[in-house]
Write a structure and sequence with these properties.
mainly beta; five-stranded antiparallel β-sheet; six-stranded antiparallel β-sheet; 2 helices; about 10% helix
Length: about 325
Amino acid sequence: MNTPVRIGAYALGLAVVFGGALGAGRAVGPAAAPPAETAHPAHAAPTGSPDAGHGGHGDTGAEQGDGAASVPPGLQISQDGYTLVPETTVFTPGEETELRFTVTGPDGRPVTAYQTQHEKKLHFIVVSRDLGEFRHLHPEEAGNGVWSVRLTLPEAGAYRAFADFAPEGGHPLTLGADLRAGGDYKPSGPLEPRRTAKVDGYTVDLAGDLVPGRSSRVTLKVSKDGKPVTDLQPYLGAYGHLVALRDGDLAYLHVHPDGEPGDGRTPSGPEVTFYAEAPSRGTYRLFLDFKHGGEVRTADFTVRAGDVPAPSEAPTGTPEPPESGAEHADDHSH
């Protein structure tokens, strides 16, 4: 075959190949364009009043960004660019130690401006990993974004510290960090359900169930010497302050009080009502701080979420957290 013939045959072959490819492309359709990236702000604007949240208060993981859509509050030491930085993480059992810490912001610098929630800029919770020990502390600002608190870990073992706060211009966050006390650790047994707590002559009964995946109402009734306590005193802007944690990983639940002192509708006892959001089935430990006779006491309970089947749809009239006149308009910290 001479040269012109060869060139002509080669050109014909190319035409067949590219023509077939074009036809296949038309049959399949144009290639889908890659999805545009969604911009994620460093932190969302706060919802409601500065006191609208506590421990996550109504902000879902999706709203909080940084891939936190399925992560309950308290499980991360860093979120949305904010990081809890304790200076001390190892303690001697029974020895009081100064714990200093900072919260750094997206710019890497210590945060110095906070919103006030429940009368405090920052709430600090320390619990043992087995949920047998609980401390609700109020650190003091030492300057330049440093917080300081005196802390005693009573027994050897692992503990979890939670910083519950809302930076100025941002949404509420709960960050967690592990603490350790050296020595021989003796683990406690599994948590058993308990709906009645006794402390210093007071009896507190819990009514209501945690329902996985949605907000549910729990009520705690305080009595002393068999008589209802009707003159509870305000504590941190409410007649009770509730912290709820999931056994196993210490996920920090979203909890809101129903009403506040002086709103004209919330009685000062004997019942204190909260709305709690359990993210899953499981065992949960609840710690209620209440004030009476000038002293704050803590009652603790253990409940199971999922023991009572959740309805497929919320029935008409299902109570929701109040949006006005309440400390929490929505969530962890409670």
